[in-house]
């Protein structure tokens, strides 16, 4: 039988508020859609609903911009308070120009604006920004534990977000956090079809699954923050999404 992996949008996830139980929402929506979790299933969750549940909001009224933020704002063209929040979430400003900053997030991601924006936040919530989860891998582990407990299955969980990429137009889904799956598979020492030993090959499995889920989630007003993936199988060791982050000393472009 040919191998296949299916990605299914999970409907019925309500708008998330601080303190909401995301795992319970997912379980309710799966049940309503007639999906029972099986061993090896993967649930991919949009970053924003996890951040909202964890109350990762910052009110701009509470932010006083630093001199650095005010200076950068002149070039970038954003509210200095917004720039200040980006700086607080970052360990390094890598590049900047009109409308965008590329920074090293405190979690290690190299990303635009520290993952902070105002999309998919109710317009009535003006003056608030939403940060990334404090510890995406830990958030995934907690949600996985709840899904496993209730379903009796052993599932994987990914929190995904949209990243731009050097040298390529457009955004793709990537894994900010994961639990219960091999996020990065080391293929060094394996053989190719002609028997040659692989020397440097690693596979970003969690990112590939996150991107597949993003095709179903959409990037605008689709309102589909959860995707169920079935059919993926791997015997590789489980490791968190943090293993996907390339250390600075190995980064040839910083």
């Amino acid at each position: 039988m040919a191998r296949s992996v299916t990605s299914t949008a999970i409907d019925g996830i309500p708008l998330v508020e601080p303190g909401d139980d995301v795992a319970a929402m997912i379980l309710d929506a799966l049940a309503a859609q007639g999906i029972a979790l099986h061993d090896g299933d993967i649930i991919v969750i949009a970053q924003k609903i996890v951040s909202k549940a964890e109350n990762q909001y910052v009110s701009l009224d509470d932010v006083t911009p630093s001199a650095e933020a005010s200076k950068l704002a002149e070039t970038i063209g954003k509210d200095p308070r917004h720039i200040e929040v980006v700086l607080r979430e970052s360990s390094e400003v890598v590049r900047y120009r009109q409308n965008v900053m590329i920074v090293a997030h405190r979690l290690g991601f190299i990303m635009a604006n520290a993952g902070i924006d105002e999309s998919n936040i109710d317009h009535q919530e003006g003056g608030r920004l939403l940060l990334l989860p404090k510890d995406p891998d830990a958030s995934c582990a907690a949600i996985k534990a709840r899904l496993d407990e209730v379903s009796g299955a052993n599932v994987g969980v990914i929190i995904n977000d949209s990243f731009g990429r050097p040298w390529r137009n457009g955004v793709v889904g990537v894994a900010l956090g994961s639990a219960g799956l091999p996020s990065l598979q080391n293929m060094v020492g394996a053989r190719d079809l002609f028997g040659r030993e692989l020397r440097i090959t690693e596979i970003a499995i969690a990112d590939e699954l996150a991107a597949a889920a993003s095709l179903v989630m959409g990037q605008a007003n689709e309102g589909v923050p959860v995707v169920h993936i079935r059919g993926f199988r791997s015997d590789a060791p489980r490791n968190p999404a943090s293993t996907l982050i390339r250390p600075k000393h190995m980064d040839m472009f910083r």
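The chain has two domains: 6-55+133-250, 57-130. The longest helix spans residues 136-151.
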